[in-house]
Amino acid sequence: MSVALATYDAEQPAFAPASEAGPAPKRIVVAYGFWVFLLSDIIMFSALFAAYAVLVRATAGGPTGAQVFNQVSVAIETGCLLASSYTCGLMSLAIGSRRRAATYVGALATFVLGAAFLGLELREFASMIAQGATPQRSAFLSAFFALVGCHGLHVTAGLVWLTVMMAQVAVKGFRANVQRRLQCFALFWHALDIIWVGLFTVVYLMGVVP
Amino acid sequence: MTEALYDRPPGYAVPAEVQEPSGFLVYTIGLVLAVVLTATSFWVANTSLLWGPGVPVGLVVLAIAQMGVHLVFFLHITTGPDNTNNVLALAFGLLVVFLVIAGSTWIMTNLNDNMMPPPELMNSHMRH
User: Fold this and answer.
1) How far is B23 from chain A (nearest CA, A)?
2) Across the interface, do B6 and A24 touch by the CB < 8 Å criterion?
3) How far is it, in rounded angstroms, from Cα B27 to Cα A90?
4) What distance in Å separates residue A33's CA from the closest CA in chain B?
5) Model confidence pLDDT, tens digit, residues A100-125
6) Which among B109, B58, B40, B37 has a CA at the least distance from the CA of A206?
7) Cβ contact (<8 Å) for B56 and A198?
8) Residues of B in contact with A210 (CB under 8 A)
9) Which residues of chain B make contact with A36, given a CB cutoff of 8 A?
10) A96 touches B13 (CB < 8 A)
11) Contacts A201 to B, Cβ<8 Å
12) Structure ipTM
């Protein structure tokens, strides 16, 4: 180290500039990589949204959205998913301060609300199919089931993931790698709620507006 | 604490001890805002008080606002210097989403306008 550099350093603020800070810790790299994955997942959903928007009038003489959508059920589904996103956030806080019991309570609430959402959605699908509004009926219904069903599959995957993570917390405790996975799960769950906001607006609410 | 200054992962809730507004408060504010926006969306879609053609635009605005609330309060995306990478990735994602949705609907609307056969031909077509 030269003297000139030492005096230069002395004038610097307490932290090093970004170019000299070195590689970011793994926690940050992992979450950033998962963020990029989530954005690519959102781009995949945008293709399904575009397909739905193009095909929404192609009912081929079959039922339209206004005839088959049940707004009350959708409102309850929305409430369940929003509340589960909130409890997932509270679970993240409990994990941050290593409170094991609070983590389990948060995870259980998240799981129950997510499962309630999924149950209501499946009931809605079943009643639509019973009315003859199957995916084969028209291009509109194909696009509807592809878009909403893909979101439902994501929620299912999230519930499985959450169960696995709670088993890992029980067996391994709050290890660094378990915490990173829980962080990714929370990101995933919040991102699903963001997609649902677009979904209930575009599909259900715009579908019933005359 | 150089890491906290330059990089913060998305979804990172600052532990309660070091944060000025507590994490619980942030999530609760987010929940309240999201509930208000959702309720407004459902009201707008069902009311007859508003001018009909403006309703879809209003719904889109409410949805985008709620997505913003979720990003800020649940995913903790901020405009701070520690969040630059997250915001840049988000901006690129939004660009692609915009291109896919706006491009598809634009092209397909044009195609429908220019190539839609007259109704009688369309009906004979649909019967098969």
Assistant:
1) 7
2) yes
3) 8
4) 9
5) 999 999 999 999 999 999 999 999 99
6) B58
7) no
8) 52
9) 89
10) yes
11) 41, 59-60, 62-63
12) 0.84
Contacts of A97 in chain B (CB under 8 A): 15-16
Structure tokens at A8: 């230069």
For chain B, the domains span 1-78, 84-128
pLDDT at position B73 is: 93
Mapped onto helix, strand or coil, the DSSP state of residue A47 is helix
Q: Which two tokens stand for residue A16?
A: 């090093």
The tokens describing B97, both together, are 């989403």
Query: Distance from CA of residue A171 to its chain's centroid?
Result: 26
- Predicted TM-score (pTM) of the model is 0.85
Domains of chain A: 65-208 (1.20.120.80)
How far is the first Cα of chain B from the last one, in angstroms, to the nearest whole number?
A: 70
- CA-nearest residue to B104 within chain A is A50
- The answer to whether residues A38 and A187 touch, using CB atoms and an 8 Å cutoff, is yes
In the block, tokens 């429908």 appear at: B112
State whether residue A17 is helix, strand or coil.
coil
